[in-house]
Write a structure and sequence with these properties.
- About 3% of the residues have low confidence.
- The protein is α+β, with helices and mostly antiparallel strands and 736 residues long.
- The chain starts with a strand and ends with a strand.
- The longest helix has 35 residues.
- The chain has 28 helices and 22 strands.
- Helix content is 50%, strand content 16%.
- The strands form 7 sheets. Strands 3-4-7-6-5 form a 5-stranded mixed β-sheet. It has a 4-stranded mixed β-sheet with strand order 14-16-15-17, with helices on one face. Strands 20-21-19-22 form a 4-stranded antiparallel β-sheet, covered by helices on one side.
- Helix 11 runs antiparallel to helix 12 and helix 22 packs across helix 25.
Length: 736
Amino acid sequence: MSFSEFTSKDYEVIAREYAELKEMARKRCSGPSELAAIQRAFDFANQAHKNVRRRSGEPYILHPIAVAKIVVGSIGLGCKSISAALLHDVVEDTDYTVEDIARLCGRKVASLVDGLTKIKTVLDNQDKNSESEEYTRSLQAENFKRILLTLNDDVRVVLIKLADRLHNCRTIEFMPEYKRDKILSETMFIFIPLAHRLGLYEVKSEMENIWLRYKEPEAYNDISARINRSMSDHSMEIDEFIRPIDEALKEKGFDLQVKRRVKTPYSIWRKMKTKDIPFEQVYDLYAIRIIFTPEKNSLETERDQCYHIFSIITGLYSYKPDRVRDWVKHPKNNGYEALHCTLQSNTGMWVEVQIRSKRMDDIAEKGIAAHWAYKREGYVGENDSEMDKWLAKIKEILVSPDINALELLDIIHNDLTNTDITVFTPKGEQRSIPKGSTALDFAYLIHTEIGERAIAAKVNMRLVPLSTILRSGDMVEIIAAEGGRPKQEWLGFLQTRHARNKVMDYFREDFDNVAEKGRAELERALAEREIELDPRTASRMAVANGFNHAEELFFRCGLGLVDTAMIANQVSGGTISRKTGKFDRTAFEIGSPTDGYRYVIASCCHPIAGDPVIGFLDPDGKTVTVHKKACPVAENLASKHGDWIVMPYWNNTRSQSFLVRIALKGLDRMGLVNEITRYISHVMVVNIKKLSIGSDQGIFEGYIDLFVHDRDVLEELIKRLRGIKGIQSVQRIEMQ
């Protein structure tokens, strides 16, 4: 932030932006008194931020106005939340207090601002503090814990914080690159899943697209250009597809509107990555939404009317039975309800059709705020609210005294991103369990005693170990023994928090012995590095790894949950004791033999010269591990350990070779593989490490691992291979 007198033009911009907010708020407010309350909040904030500017140079007050617009327009909150959004930075950035806000705007608005201030304080302190690095790391995880703890008080704090984060993402170009990457990684790791879980589709989608624009700029620009070209080419075709649907449904008396949409650049990029397909094979690029207002006096329920619409439109066009998704009968865990199907137009184009009532559409777009609005109006849905169940579960997790901040971050992230699968007991009883769960997780789900005595399992009548990962539809039988007891190694494969907690509770009965065993193992690891385990070192190690006291750290070491060698390396490498100093995060030249750093190319994502990359300075202070910016492992690291981030850049890499994998697919013919390999080796002079190509019924597909100097060489190679007769697609894919 900076200070300089506002100009007349600045005041004009402020007046215009606030006028737009007032117009948006007018539709949400119940009367003049609420509009007056918003005016008081704006006047207060406007005076508090007078002559203060953001990094971009614009008046600071434009930021809270923009956040308030998101709060009312994209999330659908009302007067108090709009007021809190306008005031959300006042206490942190000025001399005014929460009590000042309470006197002017009321206790509830002040409470919301207080919650937002506490979150912001943690974020800012993380960047500014000069304490030890373990304090910094624990703060980053603690930040998310504090954000989520506000769910226990008022979820509107989280919703306003999401609006604040979205606007910060919109203006992220003015941030230094290392801070930009930290913010984007936090956004992808926790804020985007949180927006999804709270049903905020619009907020989630915009954050995802901003993330892609900065993490994979070439992919973002390429996909955006392809979308624009495709929409231009198919616009009239989509109109022709919609017209018979609109006419047929209105003829049957439905009050509806039909909207069109195209997949976002991020969702297309994600699908291309996860399915290893090119843009041309993303068949659900287009979608239309049929949004109807249910007939109040109809004998058909809201759900029945969805099915009625489905029967009408599938009479007009053929559809893919395997692409029908019934989230009306079985809503998603974020409360989303709709009936999806994929129809084929008369010209052969596949179009996804989403059938929603007006209520379903409001909840799909505005999420939890719309959900509560309908509840206040007395609407009783045909489905239990998954949203309320999830909030209750999160609140239970947050108040647990045994979970440190780093653990909590992983628990919440996994909960936000995981989906449930359905498995069955031998009696045919249906049970939901998180995807990735093991047979032992299932045993503990049934009953703690069954879990503790489990020795093996049968999955679909076949004997399997307890560590076997379950799949949807499995029938699971647990084999228990009277003398069975929990084993420490179970903690290495259990996936659900419930089961892990039960096993840890069992061993807590012997806490002192387990902790003493862990202390001894840690002492040995430190002794190998000629370091003594004194109380001060033990305390600092505990804080550095998110534990409240050293005994808990020893207990986790004794259970094998904490790597003692890693802890010892933290101490010997100086991570535990050194201060967080200011240094140039951008002066890291990959391949430089003179800068004193060792560069390691991450094996999880295999970046090559020319890829957008992010680096992490290892605890030894001498090694930089280089990841792709979009690498999930890097996202996880950056979201938890923002102080490790450095910004490496490629230079003088022509003498280096990088391993990369390309996937090929096409029509088989005699000599095709020889032609491909000859072209790669002799024309492009690229070394092949491994080739795996097979053919079946005239179609060939496979992959080739290559050593290339940089991304330009790879892209030229891919371009030329696509020109070989018979090849239909060539693309770079991730190595397993």
